[in-house]
Amino acid sequence: MVALSALVASCGDSNTSAGPAPSLPAGCTPVASPEILPATHIPTGQTATYNTTPPSSGNHYASPAGAGGYTEPIKNETQVHNLEHGHVMVQYRGITTEQINELGALLRKDPQKVVFAPYPDMDPAIALTSWGKIQTCDAWSDSIPALVTYFIRVNRDNAPESIN
Prior knowledge:
20% helix
């Protein structure tokens, strides 16, 4: 796996310490807060069941992935540990190399606790997850970078074990 860096954003309609929320791009969902699943460590190699795709909480492996960008998907059970530590996942499917590079450049500006990776087994083109939060977009738009940046600012370090 090749490390890139970090970025993210969310969308809403409120003003927070992260600044005003960007407009919700067409084809993007508002941030959802699905039920938080029990979170215990499971043996490496065992699979867990989740209530969102990609997952936003639940059982997970004992070791998280390092923050940064990856060219290969990250196992659900690994990424959930990242979320539990306050990381934000930015995952994509079916976007162009130019769009991946645009997000990667954005991530390098603010890489702390962000993981960027492909997720070929999801329906949306973009998925943003943090502990107990998920936002998805069906297609790329020029507004996605602002959405990702905002999601990261609002949701990073908002988890039961927000540690490095």
